[in-house]
Amino acid sequence: MPKQGLCAHRGGFESTPENTVPGFEEAIKYGAQMIEFDIQFTKDSALVIMHDGTVDRTTNGRGAVADMTLNEIRKLDAGIKKGSKFASTKVPTLDETLALMPKNVWLNCHLKGGSKLGAAVALVIQKTNRMHQAFLTCEEDAAQGARAACPAILICNADSRYRANVPQYVAATIKNKANFIQLLVLKPGEDRTEQIALLKKNNIRINYFEAQKPEMLEDLFKSGVDFILTNDLPHFVTEAKRLGIAPVQPIY
């Protein structure tokens, strides 16, 4: 598995519809080391890929995801708002998303729900033989549900109760024996040297959300960050190559 690199946030949604098959295919084409996507339940407990609590922003429909069945959501167009060439793109399910992913990229599964969702997603990851590469970015309650269902599941601590307080966030991540952390944007004058050293000592991989410009990559990688989220993967690949990070050649 990649040791360092770029993470395509929601598939990289500057040029493709977020959290869709076209977006994931572009991320794979450009050799992303990690691909991030959001998972939540429908009304009938299907697992779909969508960031917002409603379908309003990214599809031609309206309403809360939790109030719609999978069949209702699948009738929506999740691509048309990015242009006519993406018309008729469907909201993907978790199974569909996992099926198209290479075996040699990290899968950053951001959970939009609690312990029940954590358990359900962990079991799908186990069933589809993705345990070596998929991890759940989630709140503590979702992590507990996931580990109860599947003790070996990889976890990225992203608990919103303390995430903005970096020392507290790092301490909780270590205490909870998470495998990843996803640090938020560095504040002006903030020094995370000590916290990053603690994470490294405890073998916790460090994600960073997010880089707005390619020229940010060098300093972030030098600081100890392992994976950097970006919304615009194609514009970051050249700089990553310059820094010695080659695009992933997908293995299926």
Describe this structure in words.
It is a single chain. The chain is α/β, with parallel strands linked by helices. It has one domain (5-242): TIM Barrel (Alpha-Beta Barrel), CATH 3.20.20.190. The chain contains 9 helices and 9 strands. The protein has helices at 21-29, 70-74, 94-100, 115-127, 140-149, 166-175, 193-201, 217-223, 237-242, and strands at residues 5-8, 34-41, 47-49, 106-111, 134-138, 154-157, 180-184, 205-209, 227-230. An 8-stranded parallel β-barrel has the order 1-2-4-5-6-7-8-9, surrounded by 6 helices. InterPro entries: GP_PDE_dom (IPR030395), PLC-like_Pdiesterase_TIM-brl (IPR017946).
Fill in the keyword field for this structure.
single chain; 252 residues; 9 helices; alpha/beta; TIM Barrel; eight-stranded parallel beta barrel
Q: What fraction of the residues are assigned to beta strands by DSSP?
A: 15-25%
The N- to C-terminal Cα distance equals 13 Å
CATH class: Alpha Beta
* Tally of distinct domains: 1
Major β-sheet strand ordering = 1-2-4-5-6-7-8-9
Shape: globular
What CATH architecture do you see? Alpha-Beta Barrel
Number of helices: 9
The low-pLDDT segments are none
Give the ordered list of helices and strands. EHEEHHEHEHEHEHEHEH
Structural class: alpha/beta
- What number is the mean pLDDT? 98
CATH homology superfamily? Phosphatidylinositol (PI) phosphodiesterase
Radius of gyration over C-alpha positions, nearest whole angstrom: 17 Å
Can you tell me the CATH topology?
TIM Barrel
| Largest beta-sheet characterization | 8 strands, parallel, barrel
Helical fraction: 25-40%
- How many β-strand runs? 9
GO biological process, one term: lipid metabolic process
Organism: Mucilaginibacter galii
Domain GP-PDE: 4-240
Protein name: Glycerophosphoryl diester phosphodiesterase
